[in-house]
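Now for one record.
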Amino acid sequence: MLDLYELEQLTAFAELGTLSRVAEAFHISTPSVTRAMQNLEDSFGVPLFTRSKNKIELNENGQAAVELAGKLLQEAEEAVRRIRALDARRKSLVVKSCAPAPLWKLMKRLSESHPGLTVSSSICQNEEALSAWENGDCDVVILPFPISAGKGKTEKWMEEHLYICVPPEHALSGCREVTFAEINGFNFLLRTELGFWDMLCRQKMPASKFLVQADDFTFQELVRSSSLPCFTTDYDNANRRAAEYGRVSIPITDSEANVTFYIARKPCRQIHG
């Protein structure tokens, strides 16, 4: 049986030219390298070297063995890489979500049921999330509509209802409820990474402009100090959040603003709770 460590020494000999240099490179004794080369000759069953009193060189068999050894070592390295990647994959989860709230809920469940799991997550538009699921690029997908999970499992995950959040002096503050048509034309503060909510608001409110903020601290300071309305949802407890900002929360009644999210997962990916 060929020994990979001895094959490494053989390829090193082809590069370095002497047994002593191989011994120095591998931090072992020269007699140890000599035994390794003899073992390889025994394994191949043919001589690999031409030996003289003060010199040892690779013969044609040895040169061919070096070429094959290089390929075997590359294959062995690739096998190790793949097995390690497989092990890491089993301990990790790739999640694509169309919105932040259902992802927050999922992350909470995962931290409770799988504390050692590494989760790679991203919020994206429906098309990107669905494509990732269909192409096998994620283990879990969250979308605002049910999909076929193939051999996996899909189920209703949660509901979320969209509100606007306005200062008491705002023209909309006296409304008990609003529609997208009624708020179209008002300018809004908007967070990044809202997934399909971002697209929905822009589609339903083409006359509105949005001041988009990526930094959470900046966004919250603008909510506290600005007269611009913003959005919140019942998942974030719209009334409580609005009160913290000294604002009023008003539900949007359009059917598109009341969303049921569905989660699909591969059969080997169990999510408890």
Notes: The mean pLDDT is 91.
